[in-house]
Amino acid sequence: MKKLLPLILMCATPAFAQTSPLDGDWTGRSNNGSCSAPLEYQISIDTGIVDGSAYDTSAHGPVPNLRKTAPPAPTPGLWQIHGLAKGASFSLMTTASVKTEDRRSGKLSVTAQGPTLVVTEQSGCGRTATLTRN
């Protein structure tokens, strides 16, 4: 056990974590695509692990239903983004923040182009965003 403990401690230190050239915080805005609203992207890459979100700034919460009719279907205002950054081109998964009955997910294609990341939706609106590192 005494020989194993130093090995465990060495492996747990961040000095052994491999960094990625894409590590950092990335932000940007997409075009409208075939939808009427762009998305604001905020992505963080740490040792190649991608975590972030994209949100529609025009999305609004529920409004009072004065006519007592069926409410319109909700549209996703927030998307969670996750995946692994491997190489200059990689894919990410997205999940919409809507109720379980209307679960939506999709894929993003990401390409590193110099100091920017170009993010393209593979389905849905087909929006494209250019992200820059903060």
How would you characterize the overall build of this protein?
The protein has one helix at residues 4-12, and strands spanning 24-30, 39-46, 49-56, 78-84, 89-96, 105-113, 116-121, 128-133. It is mainly β and 134 residues long. It has one domain (18-57, 76-133): Lipocalin, CATH 2.40.128. An eight-stranded antiparallel barrel has the order 1-2-3-4-5-6-7-8. The model has no long low-confidence stretch (mean pLDDT 82).
Short note summarizing the structure:
The chain has 134 residues and is mainly beta. The chain contains 1 helix and 8 strands; from the N terminus they run αββββββββ. The chain has an 8-stranded antiparallel β-barrel.
List its traits.
134 residues; mainly beta; Lipocalin; eight-stranded antiparallel barrel; 7% helix
